[in-house]
Amino acid sequence: MKGKRTIRRTLLRWRIALGGMAWWKFAVLLFAATFAAKLAALLLFGLTTEIGAEDLDPGRAERVGWFVAVVVAPLLETLIAQGLVIWIVRKALPGSFLWPVVFSAVVFGGGHQASPLYLVCMLLVGAVWAFGYLSRLDRKGFAQAFWLVFLVHALNNALAFLI
Prior knowledge:
Elements: H1 7-20, H2 23-46, H3 60-64, H4 66-92, H5 98-110, H6 116-140, H7 142-162
Helix pairs in contact: 1-6, 2-6, 2-7, 4-5, 4-6, 4-7, 5-6, 6-7
């Protein structure tokens, strides 16, 4: 059916739109989608699970250091969780859009296991970033996809580091 709205069609439209928009609009939208994914995870799972003191670690930022948290970690995580994982899965399953996003989200989320709630948040954020990365990769190439997702990731970590 021509006019039938489905999730697949909606995702395809978003994928095309993300791939073609100006880089700064892409970065702003991806940054907003990151916080929407975190908010959704908190609303869906944070209300049903009690967040204890062990889930919050106020001294973590000082131990890790701002350079590692804002530059090194986003660089390596974007390179591995988005770049490498998506490249490998696309080689194994050519033509698939869903599986590279899923595997990338699982690898990204798996690296963030501070608590079950945090894991769910990072799985959703990883899916958002993988979707954005793959959408941009198809239209604009690796360099722009990588650096824009890295920039959003670094800004996200910088904001978390400051708060």
